[in-house]
Design brief:
Elements lengths: L6 E6 L2 H13 L6 E3 L7 H5 L6 H27 L12 H27 L19 E6 L7 H11 L3 E5 L1
Antiparallel strand pairs: 1-3, 1-4, 2-3
Helix pairs in contact: 3-4
């Protein structure tokens, strides 16, 4: 059975060659490329055109919902539904509501962060192929998917060789 080519990965020994190849990818207008490194490389995300994550905004929105929801629930229960005079305190004793409000903020913010992370990373993904065992251990890799506009297998291979890749693999 013939395997369908999903993309080409070039493996580099150092971040300098990877950054140089990533800049060349940007000039070729490839939009869905990705890089894999053993440690973060400053500026690589901007070169590849990665946008800022939406996860912090989801965390903020759900954290505020937890804050106002927890505070509103306590105010509603203590002052409106069951107003009890406990120790001469007022019905709307805001300092007493702070711990529960904080806990609701952290709970909703944390759960939403985990869910948003899974959603935006498209996890779980059961159909991902392993590119190479050495990637993220001691090598740097640049992956160009075959779905890119203007993708030509021979052109991409020669580009990777010129960029300094010591190994080029076909991902099927």
């Amino acid at each position: 059975m013939a395997h369908k080519l999903l993309g080409i990965v070039g493996i580099f020994k150092d971040p300098y060659h990877l950054l140089r190849a990533a800049k060349e990818v940007q000039t070729r207008k490839f939009e869905h490329c990705d890089a894999f490194t053993p440690y973060p490389i400053h500026g690589l995300d901007k070169i590849l055109g990665h946008k800022r994550s939406k996860v912090p905004w989801v965390t903020l929105a759900f954290g505020l919902m937890g804050c106002f929801g927890g505070l509103g629930l306590q105010i509603w229960v203590s002052a409106i539904t069951w107003p009890l005079n406990i120790g001469g305190k007022p019905y709307l004793s805001i300092p007493a509501f702070i711990p529960i409000t904080f806990e609701c903020t952290v709970l909703l913010g944390g759960l939403a962060t985990a869910a948003a992370l899974l959603f935006f990373c498209k996890l779980p993904n059961y159909h991902t192929n392993l590119l190479d065992k050495e990637i993220t251990n001691n090598a740097f890799a640049l992956y160009i998917p075959a779905k890119e506009n203007g993708f030509n297998e021979n052109d991409v291979k020669s580009f990777m060789q010129k960029a300094g890749a010591y190994e080029i693999k076909m991902v099927e």
